[in-house]
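Exercise 3.2. Students should predict the tertiary structure of the chain below and write it as structure tokens, then compare their answer with the key that follows.

Predict this chain's 3D structure.
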Amino acid sequence: MAQDCSFSTRHKLTGERDKFRWTLNSSGTFSVRSMYAALINNGVRVSQDIWQVKIPSKIRIFLWYLKRGVILTKDNLARRNWNGDKSCAFCHCPETIQHLFFHYTYAKFLWSAVHLMFGLPPPLSIDDLFVNWSKRGSKLYNSLFLTAASVLCWTIWITRNEVVFDKCRPNFFFADSIPGNLLAAAMGKAAAA
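Answer key:
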């Protein structure tokens, strides 16, 4: 059975080696800038705010994963056919991003401390954190809010990982640095919430 195969006349087969040409750049070579421009011009949304904050790259990547909802909490691991214990290492509730960063007592304490010190209401979810909470003022303040959020989220994540992987008790490093009455007030609010 014969097949009709058509071949574009723009392409001619020769004995020369194939060459790679990046058509998104006039020089024909790949550049991140040309790829980024192509993505943006085709409607792909990129979180500029995360990439412009002056924090270590590994924390920027962590925030990006957090914003996308793909950090490897136990529920996300289970979606990848992981069969381990799916409960939170701190309180034995199902471990999700929402639970770990907003509902768990340690997270509530941290967000309550921010509320008491700066008057910012705690974020309710990842969307609220990145869409509303970190965009409460001028560009400078937004950068500061996002930096503060990155410190809190990274602290929660590192503490969680120490407990899960090192099998140790949580190291609440901040307990000695916060005045007792503020600590007690924040803990009371966190436990009540």
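Discussion points: Residues 1-5, 175-193 have pLDDT under 50 and may be disordered. DSSP finds nine helices and no strands in the chain.
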